[in-house]
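lol so apparently i was supposed to do this last week
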Amino acid sequence: MLSICRDLDAQSNYTVPRTFALQAYLTKSFRNLATRSPDHPFTMSQPTANLGQAAFDAARAKDIRRKAGRFRILIIGRANAGKTTILKKVCNTTEEPHIYNSRGMEIDLDIVRPTDERGLHDIDNEMIFLSNPGFIFHDSRGFEAGNTTELKHVKDFISRRANQRKLKNQVHAIWYCIPMDNNRPVTKAEDTFFEECGTGHVPVIVVFTKLDALDDQAFGALKQENPDITHAEALIQAPLRAQQDFEARRPNLRIFKSRYPPKDHVYLRDMNLPTTDCIQLLERTAAAIDNDVLQMLFVSTQQSSLKLCTQYAIGKILARTQGLDPAHKLTLKEIQSSILRWYPHILDVSIYGVSHFLCSDFNHHLTRM
Ligand SMILES: Nc1nc2c(ncn2[C@@H]2O[C@H](COP(=O)(O)OP(=O)(O)OP(=O)(O)O)[C@@H](O)[C@H]2O)c(=O)[nH]1
Ligand SMILES: [Mg+2]
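anyway here it is w/ magnesium ion bound
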């Protein structure tokens, strides 16, 4: 009972402030849309319609989830690359994941023996964080150069998942982590992966992790170039300089000239600190997904960035309305429907028992606009 209360509490703490932020965003956005269609007047004072529409949208979002299931991500990277740290950030949690084997049995982390530790990184196992069970992760510790068995495991997994008939069983995105805290971050193993491993429509995003490891070097370069720079100023400039220096060399890396190059790349730093986030990774991943249903599933599953939901909700509706014949202007209900389905984590909270509060509150604000 205590843990249920704690869950409810945590969910409310997370959801309520975001709901208010959402209201502010939507207020602004609806007003903009209204001025775009002066000859199609609509007001927001339709409480019943709004509530009905919200329920409709929640049902529609659920339908997408039923068909596509949960968003499945394969994360690859050698030991200590920062994989688990990223996944925790994505799921807004500091808790350890739950891991299930391919038969759906949970692996009890408390009784895993050191010799079984490899099982935690078995690519076939599914990893889920209770804070956001909308994501399923598969964790692979990558491979050393010359270790063809490991590479074959990963290749087999990707092709097995690609051949799954059901969308929900396929892998939807791959994050390939390359840590920057060693002298040669990109090895032959990475070259081989991107040369040999085609992933079809599944986007691969390279995540350069632990970029902060390059700060000392950047600090030294700044001091050398400009002896007058103060210690404090060099410290401030070092992070940006570190990224610029690496970015200047990056296009020459073989992985970006390979047969199956990554769709995009992103830099992450200081992920070990509680104040950082990996929203850029979420944004790049969303942009790299070329299937509309999966893109919506991804954006609406992640709960770290309200901005990302809004960007897609508003962007898609503007794209739909632009160039429309005035006779076919969207109705208020259609606009609401199109926008609200990007926010299922706010609308679809009935399982936590606070839906009435949030829906009526949300509706109240809409009706006052
Ligand atoms: N300095 C720094 N440390 C980081 C960063 N990200 C993660 N770490 C630290 O690196 C260590 C390893 O991180 P994990 O997330 O456990 O790495 P992993 O890839 O899951 O490792 P395995 O599960 O062993 O394969 C932890 O001590 C993290 O706190 C970062 O951006 N900067
Ligand atoms: Mg890990």
